[in-house]
Amino acid sequence: MNKANDLFQRSLKVTNLGIETFEATLREQQVPTIHIDWRPPANGNVVLASMLAKLTDERIEQANQEAFDRINQGEPLLVDVVYAKDVLPQMKKNTIGHAGPPLPWDAMCGPLKGAILGAVVYEGLAPTLEDAQTLVESGGVEFQSNHALGAVGPMTGMITYSMPLWKVINRRFDNVAYCTFNEGLGKVMRFGANGPEVIDRLKWLETVFAPALKTTLEASGPLALKVIMAKALAMGDEMHQRNTGATSLIVRELLPHLITTQQHNAELPKIVQFLTGNDQFFLNIAMAASKAMMDPVKDIPFSTVVTAMSRNGTNFGIKISALGEQWFEAPVNQPEGLYFPGYTAEDANPDIGDSTIVETVGVGGFSMGASPAVVRFVGASSVEEAIQYSLDMQLITVGLSPSLIIPTMDFTGTATAIDVRKVIETGILPVINTGMAHKEPGIGQVGAGIVKAPYECFSQAVEAMFHHLKL
To answer: Which residues 6+ apart lie within 8 Å of 469 measured at CB?
Structure first.
């Protein structure tokens, strides 16, 4: 008893394990406290923890190192502007590619439906949005997941027959990935808007902007995208919600050749204005680069590294290397962040888009510590919080990138190659920077924020891997 009394009569210094409310109470009483964010493996699920404990084969470690090496050996080059109808074998006139895992029309969210109806009108398959809905509901449109097409698209992710695409080649592994063009600001199809101004802009991109950029790239030659991404991290980008530096860098590469090749093009001033007036121009290119870097990681036996993360506004899905094209899905989470004036959380749709492919290579939310300027925009409270997100991501990945470096974190490499085992072991979920679309079709963006991947995707992947290896 005397020892207990002595304890409470001395100044306390406390290490708190697990439950944050204890730490908060101690801090309120000005007791020096260190909080350790610990939780039991597999969130205390004994069966899942047992499976996890058996996924420790040395062959898994070697396979994951191979996956990590392939990501870092990737050399994505921007080489061309092409059209979906010419390069995507599954693409027919009535095919519409969308973000996330596949799902039927009845399960789609508002912005995805709105974008699809606009895409039907854009392709001339129906004259009005009402006629487009009739066509869709009669089975006249074929839906494809963009990843199944070898492509990606932000937010709703619309890819249709006539749309121009960026073509990116991974020179190291000779594979190709595609992404649509960024539409710019305002009401855009990627956020579910589908009015005449949206369709007109897409037609301009198809018929004016894309041919001009194709000629420009032919003149410039291939552009090394990982070099641009590395430079942009040093300029304060994280490559998901902030692409100001990366956009400036690629515009600097393109502009001299654009001016030379398009000097007699009456649309040149509008093309230049579009290029220089859209700070998110590089996002779509970063997505294609990231997919080109991640696709060679597929089908490595024993590897538990995530090769894709994506969401369709209803479900969040991941794929892991050893299990190829199988999706592991769970209901998608609601982002938390800042809303544009006049909108609240009640207006926002759950998370959507293929753009989470950038987080799989270590940028986006994983490199938030590189981007103090993005902190307030996505609703983080401080630069320290952003850095902590990047530090946390190191605990669920195979290693640190040797080429994508965060200067604000003492030149630490970005956390690269998500290991589903580590997600379940630590309970730390991948963090994603994202835009927020209105839940009703046809309205568009209402804000930006941060979202975490659902735990269930990773628990399913661990279970599937356990049974796949017959452990």
So the answer is: 55, 57, 302
CA distance 259 to 441: 38
Q: Are 218 and 137 in contact (CB under 8 A)?
A: no
CATH class of 46-68+296-468: alpha beta
pTM: 0.91
At 245, phi and psi to the nearest 5? -65, -45
375, 416, 383, 68: which is closest to 229 by C-alpha?
416
Architecture of 78-291 per CATH?
Alpha-Beta Complex (3.90)
> Domain segments of the chain: what residues?
2-35, 46-68+296-468, 78-291
pLDDT digits (tens, 9 = 90+) for 304-337: 999 999 999 999 999 999 999 999 999 999 998 8
Q: What is the pLDDT of residues 206-220, one digit of tens each?
A: 999 999 999 999 999
* φ, ψ dihedrals at 435, nearest 5°: -90, 165
Q: How far apart are CA 329 and CA 128, in angstroms?
A: 34
Residue 143's H or E segment, with its range, is strand 142-145
